[in-house]
Amino acid sequence: MSQEVKEISPMGKAIIAVVLIPTIAALNYVGGVIVEALKAPIWGDTWATMLGTLIGGFWIGAVGGFLYNIIMALTVWGLPAWVWGFCNIAIAAITWFMMKMKWTDLKKPMTWVMMIVLFGLAYPVLTTAISIGVFGGGPLWKPLAAAVYTATLSSTGNFFLANYAQNAFTEIIDKPVSFIISLIIAQRIPKRFILAK
């Protein structure tokens, strides 16, 4: 006769935390591959960072997300791309902040507003800074984002605004959708497995 476990032991929590980190990296990779296969105008490779943060807390999400970027830099993107790991740290920080502010209830309008403001408008400031500062900026390789870049640059002549506009275009869709998916999954995980407080 089996009895339901009410509380996970400290050792069990440590094991969950250790297993979560490579799982986050792997799930981010899967998300990115699926998005590329579908030729979607988004990234799809940070949702597991959000999920890991919702389950394990800021450090688990940040380390798992950063690990994903290190693996990609060493295998696919090229070594300089490791700096994108700071974006996954920012994603974990925003997710953690949303949790602390209790902006995780999809039935509340404030959750939707803050998803768009923080993930869709504020976060692209960081991606734009990295894109220009490290890689020189310019149009993204995703066709719709590149079209936004070209249209913004031709109408305003502002290189920085064009880079921000294309980043905001992709992130204002990608990150809120990723956050919603992560919230839905996290809400279905038994509470005793949630390490984040």
Put the structure in a nutshell.
The protein is built from 7 helices and no strands.
What does this 3D model show about the protein?
α6 packs antiparallel against α7 (159-186). It is built from seven helices and no strands. The chain is mainly α. The protein has one domain (10-193): Arp2/3 complex 21 kDa subunit ARPC3 (Orthogonal Bundle), CATH 1.10.1760. The model has no long low-confidence stretch (mean pLDDT 92).
Number of helices: 7
Structural class by helix and strand composition: mainly alpha
Q: Please tell me what the overall shape is.
A: globular
CATH class: Mainly Alpha
Q: Which residues form runs of ≥5 with pLDDT under 50? A: none
- From the alpha carbons, calculate the radius of gyration and give it in angstroms: 18 Å
Q: Briefly note the CATH topology name.
A: Arp2/3 complex 21 kDa subunit ARPC3
Helix and strand succession?
HHHHHHH
Q: Termini separation (Å)?
A: 32 Å
User: What is the correct CATH architecture?
Assistant: Orthogonal Bundle
Name some characteristics of this structure.
single chain, 197 residues, mainly alpha, Arp2/3 complex 21 kDa subunit ARPC3, 7 helices, globular
Describe the secondary-structure layout:
Blueprint (H helix, E strand, L loop, with lengths): L9 H29 L8 H10 L1 H20 L7 H16 L8 H27 L7 H14 L2 H28 L11
